[in-house]
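Entry:
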Amino acid sequence: MTSIQSAYIHIPFCKQMCHYCNFVKYYYTEKRATEYLYALEKEIDSYLPRNNNALGTIYIGGGTPTALNKEQLTQMFEMLHWKFDIAGLEEFTIELNPGDIDEEKADILKAYGINRISFGVQVMDDNMLMQLGRTHRVQDVYETVNLLSKKDFSNISLDLIYALPNQTVEQFQRSLKEALAFQLPHYSTYALQIEPQTVFYRRHKKGQLHRPPEEDEVTMYQILKESMAANGIEQYEISNFAMPGFESRHNLTYWNNEYYYGFGAGASGYFPGKRIANLRPLPIYVEKAGSGDRPILEIDEIGIREEIEEELMLGLRKIGGYDERVFQRKFEFPLSYLYSEQLDKLMKQGLLTVNQGVWKLTDEGLLLANLVFEEFILDDLQLEEIKTKML
């Protein structure tokens, strides 16, 4: 497993349930969280029995990791310091929500080496926050940013969602302007997705969820890109913007189609030749992992077809594009061997461009990225050609 340089750690506890979120999550109780942390440590041991393991990035997500109390946060970090070479990490990220952290918790994060904060704001509008099922308000955002600045956290990423129910272009523009006024070095921005097993999904099925028209969503995305550029924040992935040097190292692991561990209930890991998804129900995860067994729900074998498709679909999400020489090194045959017609078609449609072997989505391609990615789905004949080529 020496080729794995990143780990995602899932803490599934929340003090509220947002209406749009379908991540594995449970209401926080002290007893549940204590049992979970024990099981989490046992799961990590099952993959990495030795201590002081070297990685490049660790990302602690949720749920809301800072829903843990101070003693549990300390317990978790003590365990991670024992298992991993934290001092050698390039990036150590934790997610938090406005109002979920006080000075003592901020001091714990600082003391244990957290050097990046992913900050779940979503929208700078109290009414819309209530509609999303969020418990924080805009004032909490200001207070939390001030606290993080006071504690010398300089690498902060602020999350925003747009195309919210009943949201107008003007409302989005005001929310974005207020968020940008913090002058943070990183912003992650996503159009609302209606996910199964959420409050919004049930409302959508009943015809009670009124999203903005598609043309307004496109306008919001254009405003987003222009506003970021005007503030010196460069787009480096379809939904992510950063000042130079503040790009998310951990998320680049995903977009570069590299391997990573996934620890915790519902977490997924990517290993050579397979993806492993963990059990989602909390009691079953705790029982299985706590007994020393790996809490695996399913293992998906990743064949050459899936590897090639994901390589391009993920790589082209980056604004810097995808270098066909990387493809040649990984698969030992040229990109054009499989996709000559598709690449030519996408160029003629104005969705892709190429310069010195680097393929990039155009501005229109960014808006229609899913249509572009569909062109890289391999059929059975292409798969046989690959197998023949690799013999």
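The longest strand covers residues 116-122.
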